[in-house]
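Working notes for the structural subgroup meeting. M.R. asked for a predicted model of this chain before we commit to crystallization trials. I am recording the input and output together here so anyone reviewing the notebook later can reproduce the run.

Input as submitted:
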Amino acid sequence: HNQKVQLQRRVTWITAIGVLALIIAVIVGFWVNINIITPSLPITSVNGHQIPQSLYRKMVAFKTQLAQSDLNGPNGLIAQRDSLRKQISDLQKQGQASTTQIAALNKKIAALKPGPSPERTNLTKQLKDTQTLENNQQVKFNNLNQQYTDLTKNVIPQVQTNINQSQVGNDSVTWLQNDELIREWLAKQNSHVQATVDPSTQAVSRAMAAFKTNVPKTSSYSAFLSKDQVSGDDIQAMMTITLRRDNMQTYLASQVVSPTYQVLARMMTLDTQQHATKILNELKHGGDFGKLAKANSVDNQTAVKGGSLGWLALGQYAQNYTAANVELWLFDPSRKIDGLSPIIKENGTFRIVQFLGADPARIVDATTLQSLKSSALTNWLTEQQALPGTVITPVDQNKLLDPLNIPPDLPLGAPGGGPGAVPGGSVPSVPGQP
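Returned structure, recorded in C-alpha cell form:
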C-alpha cells in the first residue's frame, strides 16, 4: 500500500513539474519571440542588407519625440509663435507712443509764432526723428506680423498634421533606407569625403545636448526613454543617422556648381509598351521626332515643344520628374549626337529619348542652381534608386503600424481642432496694426 501511495505521489510530482516546465517554456518562448525573434525580423531591405524592425522602432520613437519637441519644446514652434506675439504686442505699444508723440510735436509746432526760431528747428528735428522711428516700427511690425501669420496658419498646422503614425512611420523607414544607400556610397569614397559626411563624436554630442534641452517641459528626456522603451545609445544612433543625412545634403549641395556639364535632349512619353515600340520603330526608319512627339506624347509639358527637354544639368531631370532612369541614360558618357534610347520604363509610362548634344561648361541660371542645391540629396537618392542593381524591397505594412513599433502617444491620424490648433494652447488672433 505504501509503495502505491509513493508511486502516486511521484507521478503527481512529475506531472506538476512537467506542467510547470511547460508553462515556463511557453513564457520563455513568448519572451524570446517578442524580444529577440520579432525585433530582428526585417521591415525592408536595401541591396540585400536587412533593416530590422527593432531599428525601425527606435527611429519612430526618435522622430516622434523630435517632432513633438519641434512643436512644443522650449525652442519649438509654439514658443516661437508666443515670442512673436509678445514682440508684436510690445511694438504696438511703441507705435502708439510714437503716434502720440508725433501729435504732441505737431501741436507744439503749430503753437509757435510764425518764422524761424531755434525752438522750431529743434521741434522739427524731433518730429522727423519720431516719424522715422514710427516708419521703422511699421516695417518691423509688418515683418513680424508676416512671420506670425505664416507660423499660425501654415507651418504649425502642417507640422501638427504630420505627427501621426502613418507619416512618421513612412518617414522613419524611408530615412533608414536612405541611410543604407548613403553608407554604401560612402564606403567607396576617399577619407576626406567620409570625414565630411560622417558626423564627428563632438557633433553628435552637441546635437544630443540640444535634443535633450528641447524636450517639452511637460516631460523629460528620461521619461521619454522610459515611455518608449529605448536607451540613450539607441537615440544617439538615430541622431547619428540624422546628422549623416544633413551632412550628405550639405556635401552634395556643395558639388552643384555653375558652369557645369549639361546635355540637350528631347523626349516623348507613351502610355503603353506596344505604342512605344511602334513609335521607336518609326523613329529608326526616319520618322520626325518633333512631329511624333507632338502627336503622341502624353507629357503635355514637352509634347507642345516637340518633346524638347532643353538643356539639363545633372539632377535637373530627377527633380522635375521624380525619377532618374532617363537621366542615367542621358548622362552616360558613351552617348552620341542624335542617338535614340531604348524604351525606358519610368513612373508607369514608357519614354523614348534623343540625345542632341552636350556642353561641358554651360551656365546654370541662379534660380535653377539654387533649386538643385536645395534638393541635392533628394535628387541624388532618386538617382541611386534608379541605378541598375539597386534593390529596395517593399516595406512590410504589417510591421509599419504594428503597435509594438509605435510610441503610445503617437496619434493614429492628424490631431483635430482645426487649422492652427496645437496641443496645449489655442491659436490667437493676429494683433492689429500699431
